[in-house]
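Researcher: Next entry: NYN domain-containing protein (Thermus composti).
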Amino acid sequence: MERVAIFIDGSNLYKGLVQHLGSDYRLNFVEFISLLTAGRKLLRAYYYNAPLPPEDPAAKAHQSFLNYLKRVPYVAVRLGRLERRADGFVEKGVDIQIAIDMVRLAFVNAYDIAVLVSGDGDFAEVVRVVQDLGKQVENTTFHALSSHRLAQQADRFYPLDDFPWERLRATLQAQDPEEG
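Model: Predicted structure:
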């Protein structure tokens, strides 16, 4: 059975969820991961993000969501940081964590297929390296956020736009409040 590792760019996914489904949409991550796994053996789903600064009105809900994810079986949360700039905050360290984990786990033969949930074209070269290590890479994101270069490099691209979002909607009992 094929072994799958899922790498989720949290900011990219959240942006797509807000654009496609609205800011009040809450995703059931267990069901989402199950859909991405598609009946294959899940190694782990890695979720990458940066915690919001305490002064941000959404910081408490975001931290609650990250705490929820840490309790989900076979999910690992990897956090970068936010750096203050003149025009706001910039996420730092997240993309490099994704790239390192994808390559490191491919190198040690931990998975057969990587599922990258991101539309960031910077990952195209990482995908090529992972493929050179003998692994397949699937890429998914919303069309509006998709990098043509990344989608072309991946072995398979499928848009999140077509997912059954009502079925993937979290109920209040299913998870804590979250940002996406």
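Model: Note for the record: Residues 173-179 have pLDDT under 50 and may be disordered.
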